[in-house]
Specification:
Elements lengths: L15 H20 L3 E2 L5 E2 L14 E3 L5 E4 L4 H11 L8 E10 L3 E11 L3 H14 L5 E6 L1 H10 L3 H5 L3 H5 L4 H7 L7 H7 L5 H13 L5 E3 L10 E10 L2 E11 L2 E9 H13 L1
Parallel strand pairs: 1-5, 7-8
Antiparallel strand pairs: 2-4, 3-4, 5-6, 6-11, 7-9, 9-10, 10-11
Helix pairs in contact: 1-10, 8-9
């Protein structure tokens, strides 16, 4: 029996103070984006192309169009934003900075509110600074984690270490390989440890660690940790990647990617987690 007041597990209900907080967060974000030259885009709820964004396609909520072609509910905004801007709007606008405020949906009934931005031909350093500015505007203190997805990919390809070990962070297996430098790389957390790691790892990994070093030096985060072996389970991120945490809860993430020869950088802020963090801070 389903009671009238029940809502599906994973869906969202905001009212009163939390609804007002949600609107304040979204308003502050849209004002900052506008100040930085971004324009807003709202992508369709239905998509034919979400399988290109989500690594585990079992997370997609599937439907059919009138021609019985498969489509899905929007499970990720990044690729749709870049694809629609470059493929559909390309002839009518030269704008390369876009932001969105909209939910995504994952199987079976998970609803995730997001605020995000994409910058075509932009750098991740620019988008990271924008992320930190937004979190600072919202008065949220976070820890920044910087990674480089290319590092675990290269290690897996060149040294035969299963990529799944990185994806599921099986540190004990990584420490147990024949490669002593891999164990040392797994222990890198702070900027001061990077130079020693760069001197010890194989040559093909050094440029990727240098990229991490440059990104750390360019950002203005108060607290920053490194995770060179972290592997994000996304199809499109290919290099530098960051996440922002408050009390071990991820509040934002972003990265650099190339899709159909289009280079872009972007990030998403997880509105639901941010509301919960700010509500706890108020109650505390």
């Amino acid at each position: 029996m389903i009671f009238e007041h029940e809502i599906p597990a994973g869906s969202r209900l905001y009212f009163g103070a939390t609804a007002r907080l949600k609107r304040e967060i979204e308003t502050a974000a849209s004002e900052l984006f506008a100040k930085e030259g971004f324009e807003e885009i709202a992508t369709p709820l239905f998509s034919y192309h979400q399988h290109r964004s989500i690594r585990d396609t079992k997370e997609l909520i599937r439907l059919s169009d009138p021609m019985n072609r498969e489509l899905t509910l929007r499970a990720d905004s990044t690729i749709d934003v870049v694809r629609l801007v470059t493929k559909r709007l390309g002839r009518s606008t030269a704008q390369k900075r876009w932001f969105y405020i909209q939910p995504v949906y994952r199987y079976p009934t998970q609803e995730i509110n997001q605020i995000g931005a994409e910058c075509i031909d932009g750098t991740l350093a620019q988008m990271l600074d924008l992320t930190m500015d937004l979190l600072e505007t919202l008065e949220v203190d976070t820890v920044l984690q910087i990674s480089n997805i290319q590092i675990p990919v290269l290690i897996s390809t060149e040294f035969g270490v299963p990529l799944e070990w990185f994806a599921s962070m099986q540190i004990e297996k990584l420490l147990g390989t024949e490669y002593a430098w891999l164990g040392r790389l797994a222990k890198v957390q702070h900027f001061e440890q990077l130079d020693a790691a760069i001197s010890e790892v194989p040559q093909l990994l050094r440029p990727e660690l240098e990229k991490m070093k440059e990104l750390v030096q360019s950002c203005h985060a108060h607290r920053c940790v490194l995770a060179p072996l972290y592997y994000a389970k996304m199809r499109y991120y290919d290099s530098l990647f960051f996440r922002c945490f408050a009390d071990n809860t991820p509040l934002a993430s972003g990265g650099h990617f190339v899709n159909d020869d289009i280079t872009a950088a972007g990030f998403a802020l997880y509105t639901d987690a941010l509301i919960e963090a700010k509500t706890k801070g108020t109650n505390g």
